[in-house]
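quick one, 291 residues, struct below
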Amino acid sequence: MARYTAAPARLGESALPDGRRLGWAEWGPPDGAPVLLCPGAATSRRLGFGPNAAASLGVRLVSVDRPGLGASTPAPGRTFADFARDMRLLCELRGLGRPAVVGNSQGAPFALACAAEGVASALAVVSGADEVAAPAFADALEPGLRGLVERAVRDPAGAEEAFAAFTAEAMWDMVMAASPECDLAVYRDPGFAAGYRAALREGFAQGAAGYARDTVLAMGRWPFALESIAVPVDLWYGEEDATHSPDNGALLASRVPGARRRLVPGIGGALLWTHPEPILASLLANAAPGR
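---
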């Protein structure tokens, strides 16, 4: 059985009313409880998580390429609100209803936007990229990151152009260099490494413009109101994670009504792949009718 990830059980594209297409991949039973995954930076729909957990818990896990990544049509200048509208349309087209949502790494603010727009029935943020442009973090960022954040806020077009020079190999190298040994044990697993590298290649198949747009949006000020989120939210962070949030989600938890912050020892940003069962089980309980 697959340890961390597996090839999708179903793979396809859906046409939106404006003619654009969204690429998606699915794991688990087709009639299972729908869970929508907003993947991490520059990865395509093909990198899922917890295939065994999805099967045992009866989860229909649906991962979606954001516009410009993988198989999804580019949408220059897109916003968080645009993404939430796309996901609402996709849910209608794929019969997902109002799914539970998982946002991993750079996918976190996109998942939070879905929750703020009423697309999600419950939300799990896992190793989520935080709003690093928030004033509270101004003194907490190392100088290099602070410079990137300031440029993304001050000159988003210029920052987007700079990020568009990135490649799949550069992303792999950056993740490997920034990860603690507990995460590297996952990332170097032959099965995971092959799946991750394939997802990066597919994520950059149309060039880096999709990744660049994602990064400028994630690094800038988030325009949606976190305090308006009215569904259950779990924030999962590994205690060894030193890259996704300056305080492992403490400030973020205080800004989302009723959010539960869960710190997991012995792991960092690879948490999504090492702890899929508790993440999905809690998410399903939160999404249950009448909760």
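DSSP finds twelve helices and eight strands in the chain.
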